[in-house]
Amino acid sequence: MKLLVTGGAGFIGTNYIHYVLDTHPTDEVVVLDALTYAGNIENFQRIEHNPRFRFVKGDICDAALVDKLVQQVDAVVHIAAETHVDRSIHNADDFVRTNVLGTQVLLDACRKHFNKRFHHVSTDEVFGSLGRTGIFRENTPYEPRSPYSASKAGADHLVSAAFHTHGQAVTISNCTNNYGPYCFPEKFIPLFITNLLEGKKVPLYGDGMNIRDWIYVADHCKGIDVALRKGRNGETYCFGGRNERSNTEVAQMILFEMGYGQEMIQTVRDRPGHDRRYAIDPEKAETELGWAAETPFLHGLRKTIEWYKTNTSWWKRIKNGEYREYYEKQYGVNGITGPAPERPFDIRGEKT
After folding, report:
1. How far apart are CA 247 and CA 207, in angstroms?
2. Per the domain annotation, does 184 fall within a domain?
3. Positions marked catalytic
4. DSSP sequence for 283-298
C-alpha cells in the first residue's frame, strides 16, 4: 500500500510511520503535516533518506494540495489534529478549523478519487467523563466536555456521515491516553520526566485523582494499522490498555523510577472541565481484529523514561524552541509555523 498519513510529524503519527516502514517492507508513506507547534521534523532523521518515505509540509485544509496527494495514494490515515486540552480552552479556533474542517476536506478528496480508503484516528475524550464505575465502548453516547473533545467529536460524526450518506470506505478508532517516545513534552508523562531530568518540580492538577487508561504508543499504532487493513467499513474500534491509573499514581511511579520523592510534586489549580475518569473496553478490537495491548505499564514507563534520558537534545530543543529552526536551516524553508507555501516542499527540499 501507499499511505498518506496526516499529522505524521506529531507523537502518534511519528510512531505509526516508523511502525509501517519497519513492519511492511513494500509499503510507502507520504506524510502531510503543517509543522505547527507540536510537529517536529527532527522526528524523521532516522528515515528521511528512506526511498519509501516522503514528507510534504502543508495544511490539511488546503483542498488543492490534499486533492493532489490523495490521487497518489491507496489510503489515508488521518491523525492530524490540534490535541492539547489546555490550549483549546484558551483558544478553540484552531481546533475547529483543523479537526473539523480539515477532516471534511480529506473526506471530500477520498470520495472524489474512487472512494479511497480512509481511517480516522480519534480519542476517548469524545465520550465525556466517567464516574467511579462504567466504561467507554463503541456505542457509548458522545458527551464532549472541552473544545478539543468537541472538535474531535465533530470530526467523528463527519466520518460516520460519509459512510452512511456516500458509502465511503471509512473506519474510526477511539483510543485512550498514549505514552512513549516522541511525545511532545507539554503532555503529562513526558513533562514530568523532562522536568525531573532538569531538576524541576512536577505540576499535578487538583487532587491528582483523575484517572486515565494508559496505552503504550506502539500498541496503539498496531491497532491503527490492523483497523486500516482488516476493519469493516463504517465501523468504530476502541483501543485501550486495560490499565487505569490515577494521575497521582503515575506521578509517584515516575518519581520512584527516577529516584525522587514526594517533595518534587507541586500541586496546581485544576483545569476547567477536567474529566474525572476515562476507561475503554477494547473487546471489539480484540475479538474482530485480533489486536491486544501487549506492553505492561511499568515496562512501557521504564522504556519511555530511558528514551527521554537518551534523547535529551530532542526534548531540550523543543522546550527552548530551537526545534522550530531545524527545517529552515536544513532545507531553506522559512516560516515553518505559517501557512503552507504555494508549492510545498518535501523533506528533500524539492518542489512537490
Report:
1. 9
2. no
3. 124-125, 148
4. HHHHHHH-------HH
| Residue in 64, 85, 156 with CA at minimum distance from that of residue 119 | 156
- The predicted pLDDT at position 349 comes to 36
CB 204 within 8 A of CB 247: yes
Q: Total structural domains in the chain? A: 1
Domain interval for residue 290: 2-179+215-243+277-295+320-331
pLDDT at res. 321: 75
Residue 145 domain-assigned (yes or no): yes
- Residue 118, domain member (yes or no): yes
Determine the Cα–Cα distance for residues 300 and 19; give it in Å rounded to an integer: 16
Residue 192 in any domain: the answer is: no
DSSP states of 157-208: HHHHHHHHHH---EEEEEE-EEESTT--TTSHHHHHHHHHHTT--EEEETTS
**HSE toward the beta carbon, residue 111, CA cutoff 13 A:** 18
CB-based contacts of 313: which residues, under 8 Å, 6+ apart? none
3-state helix, strand, coil in the chain (%, to 5): 45, 20, 40
Positions of the chain with pLDDT under 50? 331-352
- How would you class 139 by CB atoms within 10 Å of its CB: exposed for 0-12, middle for 13-18, buried for 19 or more? exposed
Domain at 281, CATH number? 3.40.50.720
3-state secondary structure of 140: coil
User: Rounded distance, CA 320 to CA 314, Å?
Assistant: 10
The CB-side HSE value for 273 (13 A sphere, CA atoms) comes to 15
224: closest CA among 24, 35, 59?
24
- Assigned C-alpha cell, 85: 486540552
